[in-house]
Amino acid sequence: MNCENNYKKNMFSELDTFISELETKDGELISVLHKAQDMFGYLPVEVQEFIGEKMGIPISEIYGVITFYSFFTTTPKGEHPISVCMGTACYVNGSETILNELTRELGVKVGETTNDGKFSIDVLRCIGACGMAPIIKIGNKTYGRVEAEQVKHILKEYE
Predict the structure, then answer these.
(1) pLDDT of res. 128
(2) Global pTM?
(3) Can you give the CATH number for the domain in which 128 is found?
(4) Can you say which residues are annotated as belonging to the binding site?
(5) What pLDDT is stored for residue 69 in this prediction?
(6) In whole angstroms, what is the distance from residue 43 CA to residue 11 CA?
(7) How many structural domains comprise the chain?
(8) Per the record's keyword annotation, is Transmembrane helix included, yes or no (predicted)?
C-alpha cells in the first residue's frame, strides 16, 4: 500500500507542477482536467478537490464541467474502454444488439467496469463514421460494420 501512496503523491505533485506552470489559470480548467484524467485515468473527488484548491475554483463548478463534457469521467475505466456508437446510422444497423452482446459477454452494464478491470462499456451518440455503421471503439481502435457474432472474437484480441 505504501508504494501506491507514493505513486499517488507523485501524481499529485506532477499535477501541482502542471498547474503552477500555467501562465494564467483563467480559462485553463479544461486543460487541467484533461491532464488530470490522463494521469489518473478518471477524475475522483479527491482530484477535483485538489484542482479546485490549486486553481481557486469551487468544486461545484469543476463537477459541472466534468459532467457537461462526455469525455470526462468520475469513475475508473477499464484497461480497454469500449464505446458503442448509438447514433442514428449505427442504431438502425444494429448497435443495440451489439451493446446487448457486449454486456452479456462481459457481465457488466453500461457505465461499469469488469471485476478484473480489463473492460468498461459506454455509449456514444455519434462517432462520425456513419458509412461504417455499426461501430464500436476499444481504446483507440475502431471496428466498423460489427455484427453481434463478432463480439466474442473481438474481445479475444484483448486477452
Answers:
(1) 87
(2) 0.69
(3) 3.40.30.10
(4) 85, 90, 126, 130
(5) 85
(6) 13
(7) 2
(8) no
Q: What nine digits make up the cell of 119?
A: 473492460
Pairing relationship of beta strands 141-143 and 136-138 according to DSSP bridges: antiparallel
R_g (Cα) of the chain, nearest Å? 18
What's the pLDDT tens digit per position in 97-120? 999 999 999 999 998 999 999 999
Range of the domain at 19: 2-68
Asked which of 68, 94, 111 is the last residue of a domain, the reply is: 68
Give CA–CA dist 87/109, Å, rounded: 19
User: Does residue 114 form part of some domain?
Assistant: yes
DSSP the chain: -HHHHHHHHHHHHHHHHHHHT-S--TT-HHHHHHHHHHHHSS--HHHHHHHHHHHT--HHHHHHHHHHSTT--SSPPPSEEEEEE-SHHHHHTTHHHHHHHHHHHHT--TT-B-TTSSEEEEEES--S-GGG-S-EEETTEEE-S--GGGHHHHHHTT-
pLDDT in tens, 47-84: 999 999 999 999 999 999 998 887 788 988 899 999 99
Question: Looking at the structure, do residues 86 and 56 belong to the same domain, yes or no?
Answer: no
Q: Can you say which residues are annotated as belonging to the binding site for [2Fe-2S] cluster?
A: 85, 90, 126, 130
